TrEMBL record:
It comes from Flammeovirga kamogawensis. Gene3D superfamilies: 1.50.10.10. Residues 221-585 form the GH15-like domain. InterPro entries: 6-hairpin_glycosidase_sf, 6hp_glycosidase-like_sf, GH15-like, Trehalase-like_N. One of its GO terms (molecular function) is hydrolase activity. Keywords: Hydrolase. This is Glycoside hydrolase family 15 protein. PANTHER family: GLUCAN 1,4-ALPHA-GLUCOSIDASE, TREHALASE.
Length: 597
């Protein structure tokens, strides 16, 4: 029997749509990959405290307490450290702002350390590594910077801290504000203090303006703003791809070996992610994602993969790395993800439902509709071609092919979207084909219905329930006001719900055993379903309970242990934050009250 381990991710995340860095409550950088989201870490203490390098700011006196928070409505993170000798704070951010009609988003991390009271003494350590800890760079001292040689491009730490203190890792008294700017590629040549302060001001202004342009209701605005900001920095702006998470191999529960690399773009997330950005009125991100999807699908003459790299590459070979793993005990550490070889046929419906706004939403102009008719026709045909084919399902079962209800639901939704697009094209033949495919998909969904329980099961002929089938209600396959929807929801609650509205994906044994943790987005699907069937008060109650499983700065994990509230899985998980955003939107539409009530 595995020993239970309570786990909470005590980290905040900063980013600028080119990279992300994870900062813990003691101001250490636990995870940072350069030059891309899916590159090797240069700081990876999260997975190996020996090979992971270090970028820390440590007091010499004993720490009494810490406090970490985001600067309001930004992705700028502040960590306050209170010690027996004095207190100080570290402000971390990744510069991002408009400059010369484009966004300035360098591979640059800025750290400002300033005393709060007393005379704190600190030690700064900056030891990056390459090739997942296998390469130790050569350090050399410049006039006002330290060079780290051995990377593909030059890496520098520019600072106004005496370089000897950093090189020799000696402590010093923090008499005033000091700055550290770590760069990959183009170094910082300008005056460090003025530049860092100017970048801080411009970055803060950028994020606050971005939040101001976000269209959200008054329902739990603070949670929505944080989720929106986190979702935003998971988009790799260069290509428009949005990754599932910035980490790899954080286990679904302790010693589960369910350790996956999530630094890629999953097609299964497309519908939910675009929905979330649409709901908050951010079309710049939507347009960039459309372009990424078009680039991915245009290269595919046959089937679409479940996931691609952030540069739309197809091969994502999964290998195991010689690292200790999370908490020093969670092996294997995986780089790459073999799920790219899986058959997941819901991807075709995901693509079609995601393309629909280009035609149905008048805020998009004709230029976004060009060249996509062939893509729509090809994707619709793929639904027809794969209707009878077994696949790996949403949860990527590695040895359990089946006729999954979730796959047929997206066949049904994708064909519905194709029918609407056919009307835009004034293509009667395509419209007729889409309707026939939609009818066939509905027939396949009904094969998953269990008369005895009144529940749609995970797959045709199966007796296992699956939380993804909650979406039969939220996507309006089932009339939310119908007795069938009520029975279906009641059956799923009885079988899969844990405390506080948390939900298991499923409870059956898979290729890694029986799941031990709940999957957070399933809880938000449940909350949406409650709102759909008119149980709005319960939806609000569960929304507040489920959202309380965020960490101290409002970030959500992939999985939650319902017994002790532990956070597990890769972190933060965009799927979970998208779930929160879409559930909040659904509830706020149901409330529809004046803001003074």
């Amino acid at each position: 029997m595995k020993k239970k381990t309570h786990n909470k991710y005590d980290m905040g995340v900063i980013g600028n749509c080119a990279f992300m860095a994870y900062v813990d409550t003691k101001a250490s950088i636990r995870w940072l990959c350069w030059p891309r989201f899916d590159s090797s870490f240069i700081f990876g203490d999260l997975l190996d405290d020996e090979k992971g390098g270090e970028f820390s700011v440590k007091p010499t006196a004993k720490i009494k307490k810490t406090n970490q928070y985001y600067v309001e409505n930004t992705n700028i993170l502040v960590t306050e450290i209170y010690t027996e000798d004095g207190d100080f704070k570290v402000t971390d951010f990744a510069p991002r702002f408009e400059q010369d009609d484009r966004y300035y988003k360098p591979l640059m991390m800025v750290r400002k350390i300033e005393p709060l009271q007393g005379t704190p003494s600190i030690k700064v350590v900056c030891n990056p590594v390459g090739n997942y800890g296998e390469m130790i760079p050569q350090k050399s001292q410049g006039s006002n910077h330290i060079r780290y040689e051995g990377f593909d491009q030059q890496m520098r730490l520019t600072t106004n801290i005496p370089l000897s203190y950093v090189m020799e890792e000696n402590s010093f008294v923090l008499g005033g504000a000091v700055y550290m700017v770590l760069t990959y590629g183009a170094p910082l040549e300008a005056a460090i203090e003025n530049t860092a302060e100017q970048f801080y001001t411009r970055t803060k202004r950028y994020w606050r303006n971005w939040v101001k342009s976000t269209s959200i209701s008054f329902f739990h605005q603070e949670k929505l703003i944080r989720s929106s900001l986190i979702l935003k920095i998971h988009q790799y702006e260069d290509t428009g791809a949005i990754i599932a998470s910035g980490t790899t191999s954080l286990p679904e529960y302790h010693k589960s070996t369910r350790n996956w690399d999530y630094r890629y773009c999953w097609m299964r997330d497309t519908y939910y992610t675009l929905n979330a950005f649409n709901n908050i009125g951010h079309f710049e991100e939507v347009e960039a994602y459309f372009k990424y999807i078009e680039n991915v699908t245009k290269q595919e003459e046959d089937r679409y993969q479940p996931l691609y790299t952030i540069t739309a590459q197809k091969e994502i070979t999964e290998i195991e790395m010689p690292l200790k793993g999370y908490l020093g005990e969670n092996k294997p550490v995986r780089i790459g993800n073999d799920a790219y070889t899986h058959i997941q046929n819901d991807v075709y419906g995901q693509v079609l439902t995601s393309l629909l706004p280009l035609y149905a939403d008048k805020r998009f102009t004709n230029k976004y509709r060009m060249h996509t008719k062939k893509l729509v026709e090809h994707t619709l045909q793929k639904i027809a071609d794969t209707m009878e084919e077994k696949d790996a399902g949403l949860w990527e079962f590695r040895d359990r092919p089946g006729h999954y209800c979730y796959t047929f639901l997206f066949h049904w939704a994708g064909a519905s979207a194709a029918y609407k697009m056919a009307q835009y094209f004034e293509d009667v033949k395509m419209a007729d084909k889409a309707l026939k495919i939609k009818e066939r998909a509905a027939e396949m969904i009904e094969k998953c219905y269990d008369e005895e329980t009144g529940v749609y099961m995970q797959a045709a002929g199966a007796k296992d329930m699956d939380a993804s089938c909650l979406q039969l209600i939220t996507m309006n396959y089932l009339d939310p006001n119908s007795e069938r929807a009520r029975r279906h929801l009641a059956g799923m609650e009885k079988e899969l719900m844990a405390k506080d509205g948390l939900f298991y994906r499923y409870k059956h044994v898979d290729d890694f055993g029986a799941p031990e943790t709940t999957f957070l987005i399933c809880a938000y699907w449940y909350i949406e379903a409650l709102a759909c069937v008119g149980r709005v008060k319960e939806a609000i109650d569960y929304f507040e309970k489920v959202s309380s499983y965020a960490n101290h700065v409002g970030l959500l994990s992939e999985d939650v242990d319902s017994k002790d509230g532990s956070q597990w899985g890769n972190f933060p998980q965009t799927y979970s934050h998208v779930g929160l955003m879409n559930a909040a939107y659904r509830i706020s539409k149901k409330l529809d009250l004046p803001n003074f009530l």
